[in-house]
Amino acid sequence: MRSYPNLIPLSAREVDAIATALAPFAFDRIYGHHFDRVIAAGAKAVLEISVARYKAALAGTRGY
Predict the structure, then answer these.
(1) Which DSSP state fits 22?
(2) From CA 63, how far away is CA 10, in angstroms rounded?
(3) 29 with 42: CB under 8 angstroms?
(4) What does R_g of the chain's alpha carbons equal in angstroms?
(5) Which residues of 13-41 are buried (b: 16+ CB within 10 A; e: fewer)?
(6) 29: closest CA among 46, 52, 48, 6?
(7) Measured between alpha carbons, how far apart are the two ends of the chain, in Å?
(8) Long-range CB contact pairs, 55-58, < 8 A, 24+
(9) Do residues 3 and 21 touch, judged by C-beta distance below 8 A?
């Protein structure tokens, strides 16, 4: 499977490192690989929410 590495979860430390690396940049839009995978506005806030949600899922505190 060509995209199999995308299914391997990242650790909380790696997710924090990504968030820290992106923190200094101002951005409002994120483009995904496919045309329907675009966050057209508020992308920085969406990233912060996504980081928190991912870390909560790793910790088992997401509360489905």
Answers:
(1) H
(2) 20
(3) no
(4) 13
(5) eebeeebeeeeeeeeeeeeeeeeeeebee
(6) 46
(7) 29
(8) 55/12, 55/15, 55/16, 58/9, 58/11, 58/12, 58/15
(9) no
- Type of residue numbered 52: A
Tokens matching residue 3: 């995209």
Please enumerate in sequence order all residues whose Cβ is within 8 A of that of 29, keeping only pairs 6 or more positions apart, or say none: 38, 39, 40, 41, 43
Q: What is the residue-level pLDDT of the chain in tens, covering all 64 positions?
A: 566 777 788 999 999 999 999 999 999 999 988 788 899 999 999 999 999 999 999 998 877 6
